[in-house]
Amino acid sequence: MIFQSFKIKELFDIHPTKSYNLTNSQLFCNDGKVPVVTNTSENYGRSGFSNLKPTEHDIITFSDTGTKSPESFFFQEGEFIGYAHVQGMYPYSTKWGKKQLIYLTTILRKKTHGLYDYSTKMTREIISNLDIELPIINGTTDQIDFNYMETYIDKITQEQVNKLDTYLRISGLNSFKLTDADRYILSLNKEYKEYKITDIFNIVNTHSILQSQINENSGGTPYLTAAEGNNSVSTYISCDDKWIDEGNCIFIGGKTMTITYQEKDFFSNDSHNLALYLKDNSKRNKYIQCFFITALKKSLGTKYYWGDSISKKKIQNDTVFLPINDKMEIDYDYMKSYIKVIEKIVISDVVKYKDSLNTASDITSD
C-alpha cells in the first residue's frame, strides 16, 4: 500500500460545533435522549444527555481546551448537541463514511499524542495545518483509497471481537444474566445520609514524580496523572520504591477532579493528587470503592474545577451522601451488591455489541 501526505485543511473544514448558550443545569437533564459532546476525553466526549434538538451529526469532534486534548478526538455517530470549545471536522467529500472517519481519528490521536494540554492549546488552526499520511489508490498520486480504510477497520474490529470473546470465556464473565436478587437490588429506593468524608477515609497527598523524570514504559507500576481517560494511567514505569503509593484506594486528580479506583500500588505525577483509604479495612474492596467514586463525583464534581481545585485541606470540610440500612448505618452490603449488578449490565451491553459486530460481519460477507 502506498501512502501520500495530505493537509487536514485540504480534506476538512474545521469550526466550532453548534451549541446552546445555556448553563449546564439548563442543558442537561436526567431523562434526556440527545447526547451532549463536551470537552472531556472520556465516554466518547459525551458528558450527559439533553431533551433539546440535536445540532450536529456524524462528524469527528475534538476539544481545543481539554487537559488531554489529543485524546478528545472521537467520531460521533448519529445526532448530538455541540458545546463550547468543541470543534467539528466537516469533510468536503461524501466518501468519508463512518469507518473512514474512525481510521482518521486514530491517525489524529497518534500525530498529536503528548503535544498539547490545557496550557498548550490544540487549536483548530493547528489541526487544519496538520500533515497526515493516507493510503492512495495504486497508479495515482492523490486519490485517497477509501476502500482500503474501510477494509482495514473491518479487520481490526474482527480481531478485537475475537479477543473479547476469548476474554469473556476465560474470565467467566459471559455469565451476565440478572437474577431475581439482582432485580430486587435495582428496585430498592434507598434512603441516603450525609457523612463527612474524613470520618470514612484517611486522606493523604500522593508522592510526586515529574513527567520529565520518568522513562515511559520502563516497568510494570502504573504512573498516574490527573488527566481523564485510561483510569488515570499515563504509562507504566520503574522507579525507586520510596516514591510509591499504596494501591487499593480511591485516587483524585487534584487539579481536574478525576476520580478513579486504583487496585495496585502506583506512582503519581503531582503531590496535589489525593489518595483516599477507607478506615474500615474490611470494606476496602473494588465494588464498594467504585460505589464511592460515583458518590464522590455527585457530591464534589460541581464544586471543584481547574481554577479552584480540591486539596487535602479543603476536603476536610466536604461531605458525601451514602445509602443507609435499617440501623441508620452506611449500607456497605447494598453498595457492593449494586455495583456487582451494574457490572453485569455493562458486560451484557458489551456482549450485545460484540454480537452485533459479528452479525454485521456475517451480513457483509454474504
From TrEMBL:
InterPro entries from the entry?
Restrct_endonuc_typeI_TRD
Concerning SUPFAM superfamilies, the annotation shows: DNA methylase specificity domain
Report what the protein is called.
Restriction endonuclease subunit M
Keyword set includes Secreted:
no
Keyword field: Endonuclease, Hydrolase, Nuclease
Domain called Type I restriction modification DNA specificity: residue spans: 4-163, 189-344
Entry-linked Pfam families: Methylase_S
Q: Which organism is it from?
A: Coprococcus comes
GO MF terms listed in the record are:
DNA binding; endonuclease activity
